[in-house]
Design a protein that fits this description.
heterodimer, A: 315 residues, mainly alpha, MetI-like fold, two-stranded antiparallel ribbon, two-stranded antiparallel sheet, 13 helices, B: 297 residues, alpha/beta, six-stranded mixed beta sheet, 11 helices, 12 strands, disordered C terminus, amino-acid transport (chain A), membrane (chain A), transport (chain A), transmembrane helix (chain A), transmembrane (chain A)
């Protein structure tokens, strides 16, 4: 009821709409949470104290940093960098570049990451134990003119030594990620109004600079939210590094610890808790990145953000 | 045509033709624009005036004819009668001296007003940032926006955005300014502030080619009016002749249509100012009275 001063209506003091179903939902959820907590306390097989202990073990912490965190950062740097290059290639006037980018995306999106990592760890080493960087057909050429066959080889990589390091894992995950990032970056670049390119061209900016200074920074607004999604997915995909095999990685170490004590579950819980911590930190970072690249646009509407997240999550 | 002399035209276009998917938009346009001259291109939509403007700075490639700006053949290198397409870099270099303002402003939304104006001088000309910023502030003052350097484009009105766009183009010290319907996307009450800046620019001796429907501007500021229709130049001359006493029936038909729209427009503005909704309801046509309706409510 609003109070009336004189004959003109005064300020509105209305009763809000009631939401009885909210209270029902709260009650149901409260009961479920209580059941869960009670199970944590009464079911000793959970063994949280041991899980916390595992979380603090040196090999587990090392696996977290040298495997999970380094693997995520490294493969995302490679994935985003290569992905943007692929996206620019895909949108270029050059049909060869367009074709290469398309075939790349087709190939690496089709291979499961676990299979790709196994190929890098075992398959490539079986085919080529050494990989040499030098002139194409340098060995044959040197042999033909009768000089030392390694003359045209500048750098040789012992694949079997390389493939057991985290760098092999980063290479595998990064190559796979680039295929997804290429699609995300392409959508981002296409979202920038054509008038922006024209305005930059009219000012005399060459194409490369127009892309770097004008188009890409605006595309980032669209690229960042799904990339945050990809990064969080990558944190979890580092647990696939065991396919290479790389054992200096969070899940293997935590699981291993539990196994040794004949307590498998606390090992899994320890890994889960660490993944939760890392992903929570990443979500905070994503918020600030989105705010930075959204400058000049006002807030990104919530609806649009959800749509984008969905696009990024469809694999 | 190699070096430009003082009496050579700044823009020299000969027999320019252009098709989009088999649809011929420009059918042999000839046009010379002298240094310091203000030319207004008039014509119905689809007449090719915007396309011709975009051909001058190579935002569109032409299929036939030649365009020289300040003695430079645009887009090509003429080596003994054989044309070689220039690389994107060299075309970019040709565009440096030609400023352009767009119907939709096309300011860089992720950069502040000052950053928008400074961008090209620093990135393209290699100017020192300090010097570029000082010059940018001068230009922003010139367009009446000296108090807005740190605003983002989205925080400005359309008229203010277009004035920033003019300052951004001027920051490259262009020899020639192209305006592509600079006031068509503006609410009626904001058109005046942009036209004032353009008038000011004309009195400073800038060479300008303006595509517009603003007849008042054409009458007052243009040295020459060119009327285009269906990809050809129908008639051209001083505004007093082309607008005041058109020879061709197509020009006359276009002008009488424009006059009707202008009148409707004016009535809408008057209605918006006086709040007289009856006059608004009577005003025919829908050209740009949306803004007026907003303020009338």
């Amino acid at each position: 009821m609003s109070t009336v001063s004189g004959d003109r209506p005064g300020p509105i003091k209305a009763r809000p709409v009631r939401h009885p179903w909210r209270w029902v939902a709260i009650a149901v959820i409260a009961v479920l949470v209580a059941m869960m907590v009670s199970s944590f306390v009464t079911n000793e097989k959970w063994d949280f104290p041991f899980a916390f202990e595992i979380m603090q073990q040196t090999p587990v912490i090392q696996g977290l940093w040298a495997g999970t965190v380094l693997g995520t950062v490294g493969s995302m740097v490679l994935g985003v960098g290569l992905g943007i290059v692929l996206a620019v290639m895909r949108l270029s006037d050059n049909p060869v570049l367009r074709g290469v980018a398309f075939v790349y995306t087709w190939f690496f999106r089709a291979i499961p990451r676990y299979v790709l990592l196994a190929l890098i760890g075992v398959g490539v080493g079986f085919l080529y134990s050494q990989i040499s960087f030098g002139l194409p057909f340098g060995e044959q050429l040197a042999g033909a003119i009768g000089i030392d066959t390694t003359t045209f080889t500048f750098f040789t990589l012992d694949w079997n030594a390389f493939s057991s390091t985290i760098w092999a894992g980063i290479l595998g995950l990064g190559l796979s990620e680039a295929a997804y990032m290429a699609e995300i970056a392409r959508a981002g670049i296409l979202s920038v109004d054509r008038g922006q390119t024209e305005a930059a061209q009219a000012l005399g900016m060459p194409p490369g600079r127009t892309m770097r200074r004008i188009v890409l920074p605006q595309a980032m607004r669209v690229i960042v939210p799904p990339t945050g999604n990809e990064t969080i997915a990558m944190v979890k995909d580092t647990s696939l590094l065991i396919a290479i095999p790389i054992i200096n990685e969070l899940f293997f170490q935590a699981y291993n610890f539990g196994q040794r004590g004949f307590k498998i579950l606390p090992g899994m819980v320890a890994a889960t808790l660490w993944y939760l911590v890392v992903c929570s930190i990443l979500m905070v970072g994503q918020y600030y990145l989105e705010r930075y690249f959204g400058r000049g646009f006002g807030a990104v509407p919530k609806k649009a953000k959800q749509e984008l997240t969905k696009i990024g999550a469809d694999h | 045509m190699t070096a430009s002399t003082s009496d050579a035209p700044l823009v020299h276009a000969v027999n320019v033709s252009k098709s989009f998917h088999g649809n011929e938009v420009l059918k042999g346009i000839d046009m010379d624009v002298a240094t310091g001259e203000v030319v207004v291109l008039l014509g119905p939509s689809g007449s090719g005036k915007t396309t011709f403007l975009r051909c001058i700075n190579q935002l569109e490639t032409i299929d036939g004819g030649r365009i020289w700006v300040d003695g430079d053949l645009m887009g090509y290198d003429d080596r003994g009668g054989t044309l070689h397409r220039l690389t994107d870099k060299r075309i970019a270099a040709q565009r440096r001296d030609i400023g352009m303002c767009f119907q939709r402003f096309n300011l860089f939304p992720h950069k502040t007003v000052l950053e928008n104006v400074v961008e090209a001088p620093v990135q393209v000309k290699g100017m020192k940032r300090k010097a570029a910023e000082a010059r940018a502030m001068e230009l922003l003052q010139q367009v009446g926006l000296g108090d807005k350097p740190s605003a983002y484009p989205a925080q400005l009105s359309g008229g203010q955005q277009q004035r920033v766009a003019i300052a951004r183009a001027l920051a490259m010290d262009p020899k020639l300014m192209l305006f592509d319907e600079p006031t068509s996307a503006l609410d009626p009450e904001l058109v005046g502030e942009v036209l004032k800046v353009m008038r000011d620019l004309a009195t400073r001796g800038m060479t300008m080619i303006v595509v517009t429907h603003e007849m008042g501007f054409a009458r007052e500021v243009a040295d020459r009016v060119v009327f285009m229709d269906a990809g050809v130049v129908v008639e051209e001359g001083p505004p007093s002749e082309v607008i005041g006493n058109p020879k061709h029936h197509r020009t006359r038909a276009f002008l009488s249509r424009m006059r009707q729209e202008e009148q409707a427009h004016a009535e809408a503005v008057v209605a918006s100012v006086t709040g007289n909704t009856e006059a608004l309801a009577d005003a025919p046509g829908d050209g740009g009275d949306d803004g007026a309706r907003d303020t009338a409510g």
